[in-house]
Amino acid sequence: MRRLIVTGSSGLIGSESVLYFDSRGWEVHGVDNNMRRAFFGEDGDTTWNLRRISAKATNFRHHDLDIRERQKVLDLTESLRPEFIIHCAAQPSHDLAASIPFDDFDVNAAGTLNLLEAVRRHCPEATFCFMSTNKVYGDAPNELELVELDTRWDYADPGMRDGISENMRIDQSKHSLFGASKVAADIMVQEYGRYFGMKTVCFRGGCLTGPAHSAAELHGFLAYLIKCASQGRHYKIFGYKGKQVRDNIHSLDVCRVFEAFYENPSCGAVYNLGGGRGNSISMLEAIRMAEDATNKKMDHEYVEQNRAGDHICYISDLSKLRADFPGWDISVPLDTIFSEIAANA
Questions:
Q1: Residue 315 half-sphere exposure toward CB, CA atoms < 13 A
Q2: Number of other residues whose CB lies within 10 A of the CB of residue 266
Q3: How far is CA 162 from CA 73, 154, 169, in A?
Q4: Packing angle between helix 251-263 and helix 12-22, nearest 10 degrees?
């Protein structure tokens, strides 16, 4: 039986990966210490999700392990020697990182290094998928000329319709400390692929979403927005007239691309991964869709100050991904994402 380690296994992408690969006959080992609760409080607690996947999965084992604990990471990897590693564990908030810089860097950068070195020492033929972020580009995408439409910002250049490609620079811009720590991890994942010939990939995620998200104000835009609509919570829009744009990808489609890379891997690969233009939406548009999905009017306010380093308009160009993996494409449209999250909010 093929063996897989998933870090951050009680989170959104991690839990979807556990169930997805368990259903395909893998022996799945999840690594998670519910640090999301320490980061975000009760909203971020993933205990419910661990219970859910433990009940549903047939061949899953949970390991309460902190990826910052180097020797424990080395020991677990040596004992399991998996064929596949999906690394989703992270401090994921660019706002929160400024107040916990050591925790942020130790989890995102040092934790990733611990895993990479463990794999190199004990199972160098394994495939290593890293869930990176589009925040590695910092605010460089904001330098693109934009046009203001009624409900969103968009790219002025028609040639940019497909969005941001992997050629966007990652330096000389403001990232947030979170973005900087993820850059360090991203580059290290590439380096282990290129220098050591390991099968590694960085997926630079846009807005990853789905009903399994333990969303909080500082992370989990779409799920948190719908939670606020459903529960009557007050919601704040930060800057850019509420017209900032994100592309949203369902966690299922993320797992499908992990599988595609495992089946056809390369060394030190990089892909932008999001919902593309078809699943893009502005904050104002999202509020309207959330109200429709929950049949409730949202209580929201506008705050003029945008979040530091935040993107004004970000759409992931999926051209490279689609070219390299022609059997993969977005399968869950935006309206389905909203209805699924609303049903579980």
A1: 20
A2: 12
A3: 39, 11, 17
A4: 60
Take residue 341 and report the two structure tokens written for it. 């999250």
How far is the C-alpha of 121 from the C-alpha of 292, rounded, in Å?
52
Cα separations in angstroms, 320 against 43, 166, 257, 271:
36, 8, 12, 7
**230-262 confidence digits (pLDDT tens):** 999 999 999 999 999 999 999 999 999 999 999
Q: Give yes or no for a contact between 39 and 18, defined as CB atoms under 8 angstroms apart.
A: no
The domain that holds 276 is classified in CATH as 3.40.50.720
Q: Measure Cα distances from 206 to 63, 113, 114, 222, 315 in Å.
A: 28, 23, 25, 12, 8
Query: How many domains does the structure of the chain reveal?
Result: 1
pTM flag (> 0.85): yes
Q: Give me 303's structure tokens.
A: 């705050």
Q: Are 330 and 249 in contact (CB under 8 A)?
A: yes
Alpha helices in the chain (DSSP H): 12-22, 35-40, 47-56, 70-80, 101-105, 111-122, 176-196, 221-231, 251-263, 283-294, 319-324, 334-344
The two three-digit tokens of residue 238, written as one number? 């930060």
- Nearest Cα neighbor of 276 from 125, 161, 144, 108 is 161
Residues 96, 101, 107, 111, CA torsion sign? positive
98 in Cβ contact with 310 (< 8 Å): no
Boundaries of domain holding 324: 3-344
Query: Which residue is listed with tokens 């400024």?
Result: 98
Residues whose CB is less than 8 angstroms from the CB of residue 256 and which lie 6 or more positions away in sequence, other chains included: 20, 328, 331
Q: Are 86 and 20 in contact (CB under 8 A)?
A: no
Q: What is the pLDDT of residues 160-177, one digit of tens each?
A: 999 999 999 999 999 999
